[in-house]
Amino acid sequence: MSSVFSNVVRAPEDPILGVTVAYNKDQSPNKLNLGVGAYRTEQGKPLLLNVVKRAEQMLVNDQSRIKEYLPIVGLADFNKLSAKLIFGADSPAIQENRVTTVQCLSGTGSLRVGGEFLARHYHERTVYIPQPTWGNHPKIFTLAGLSVKTYRYYNPETRGLDFEGMLEDLGSAPSGAIVLLHACAHNPTGVDPTIEQWEQIRQLMRSKSLLPFFDSAYQGFASGSLDADAQSVRIFVADGGECLAAQSYAKNMGLYGERVGALSIVCKTADAASKVESQLKLVIRPMYSSPPLHGASIVAAILKDSDLYNEWTLELKAMADRIISMRQELFDALQAKGTPGDWSHIVKQIGMFTFTGLNSEQVTFMTNEYHIYMTFDGRISMAGLSSRTVPHLADAIHAAVTGDA
Known about the structure:
PyrdxlP-dep_Trfase_major, pyridoxal phosphate, aminotransferase, single chain, L-aspartate:2-oxoglutarate aminotransferase activity, seven-stranded mixed β-sheet, globular, two-stranded parallel sheet, 15 helices, 45% helix, alpha/beta
């Protein structure tokens, strides 16, 4: 039978989500998925936070709750509390009503709404993104109507930050260009600037009127401290300048499937913030009309209740600490095996991901011989590891590096 869509070409698998597709087809009992950035327990299972269960139970027990549409901008409490979480409760920008926050569909949706707003209302249509960056970033901004360019970020030789290259490229960017910055736990490299380096980046960007657009997917999940992980954003807000910030609660509350996020735009004046919000509504309305209620209600319940909030910070720190301990265990295992090379970057990098430095041939070898799945750039999710699986991964890395099949 012929179809009117028979000329449609099969699209390639998403490079990240495709890893899980291949993993699911593998019948090996030793298979290990280190591709997708989702937290796993020591037993390799997804984690539903206790505080999320408690918040959900409170919502279920609230007989006054209804399922009416939210406003276009989302749940008011959620927006207000999200801005406080990232900018700080005492932020002058919040106190002066210079921030507008809208609830969006997790981090991806927040970036897309921000990108489309900038394409319509900002004078510069070029966005600079780090090289490398999350694979979805260039697609999001291109489809939003922006022109995407890159700046140097990662140095493969040191497996650390190419700070000089970053400053040089941002210094060469046209005045007013948009610059995407990972707030913390850079994906995929796990390499972040120091606070001193962030200050230099801020000075350079402000001197050239570059517009910062922060992607904050891991606040509290990187170091275990919500405040420490927001420092990069806060130093840009503290100077009175303008910026954008996309937030996601997928990782730090384990709300992956609820698609809970926020876009905040910090303006120079309250009047500008009000006008910006009116235009954000015009971006959102024809896109998805209004955001979902349930996930945002969970987040708002946790952020506004001091007991729930404190419980969340403890669970969040426990997740971050487990990832940090996995880094140490993997490093120690490679050291014990005498695996050639310097593997100290594994413990120096931060957050969910480690950029191992393995090349695509080595990755393919590890998948074929050891049933270990990761993206071809050698990025692994440390959250997918456990004490039980670290030795298997260390064996595979050792064999891939030494050529011992």
